[in-house]
Amino acid sequence: MRLACMFSSVLLFGAAGLLLFISLQDPTELAPPQLPGIKFSIRPEQPHNALPPQGSSQDGDSMAPTEKGTRDSSSRDPGGLHLQVPGQHQPLPESGARMRLRQRRRRLLIKRTTGAAAAATNGSGGTAVQPGPGTPDGRRAGLQQSQRERKRLMQEACAKYRASSSRRAVTPRHVSRIFVEDRHRVLYCEVPKAGCSNWKRVLMVLAGLASSAADIQHNTVHYGGALRRLDTFDRQGILHRLGTYTKMLFVREPFERLVSAFRDKFEHPNSYYHPVFGKAILARYRANASREALRTGAGVRFPEFVQYLLDVHRPVGMDIHWDHVSRLCSPCLIDYDFVGKFESMEDDANFFLSLIRAPRNLTFPRFKDRHSQEARTTAGITHRYFAQLSALQRQRAYDFYYMDYLMFNYSKPFADLY
């Protein structure tokens, strides 16, 4: 009996000692190292030294998509993800590898907007010399800082209000307003009334389709089919370009953009907007409209146009010239490398051209594309048009464009807005 008790005590002490020993060990020493898993990548394995064949798009910017058309196009197959196992890389030809390396370096330069101004050092102490604001280096540093701030604010707004957008799959509808320039690997999201006609001219010069932007006529820009849209490529071509090209867009103060669109489309003869939009607006929102007005669709007034815009049961669908930038370009889904503004167009555009190493003699055109004798839409002109509205209509219009105001850091245009 005593022998059995002693044997049990030895076993208990042994077990306790073993547990104490295990508890003192580093868990990583007891567990075998984990092998790397499979990574998910949306970039298709495609040789980078061969560009897909060029195509053309016949759709001009004046042919407006309706709400029904937008819904239909969104139902197209977005495609799946590509599985890429670490360590198994597609061999690239030497020329393609060099091209990819150059493009990655250039994208990194633009993505970070060089991170900070290039630090200059003096000969003795090696301390950084900060360029003055009036020097070329100082202006460049200011433009770089503006890019960082714009991207930060845009990303913060997306994270706060559109967090689910970043998890959605990219469909052809999301990239239907993006134009492709393969030679310099640029993707430009078109925002009408924010310099888009001249940007298309610049892309055509970059692509070698014209020697000068000034020589390209308006109809050639919008209806010539010289530039290809991203949604005309197959799924692999779309994802490849989104993953490797430099993506940029230019925006404008939302109320100014709206007034600019109204002046262009409704205050001048127009064979598309008057019969398609004007007739529907007059029939719905003008009491006792004349037979001539209903026949031609001409003479729409700004308050009637805003009534149409804010009506959830519009008699005719939305149009790209006054649709939200957040819907045209999907900035919460597509990570744009460069965000320019119409208000600082010349500086921003030429800075972007320098970043993509465009020809030095190519600068952004200054001329007004249409109705050149008419003054550009300014803040003062915009206020005169919005003075025709009630306070409630101005507030509702601000609410309509609120995400564009927030995402691109535009101030409230009227003091009574909230």
Q: What features would you highlight for this structure?
A:
alpha/beta, five-stranded mixed beta sheet, two-stranded antiparallel ribbon, 17 helices, 9 strands
Description:
- It is built from 17 helices and 9 strands.
- About 21% of the residues have low confidence.
- It has 418 residues and is of the alpha/beta class.
Provide a compact summary of the structure.
With 418 residues, the protein is an alpha/beta fold.
Class inferred from helices and paired strands: alpha/beta
What percentage of residues falls in helices of 4 or more residues? 40-55%
Mean pLDDT: 78
- What is the molecular shape? extended
What is the β-strand count? 9
The number of helical runs is 17
Order of strands, widest sheet:
7-5-6-8-9
Reported for the largest beta sheet, the result is:
5 strands, mixed
Give the distance, in angstroms, between the N- and C-terminal Cα atoms.
89 Å
Residues in β-strands, percent? 5-15%
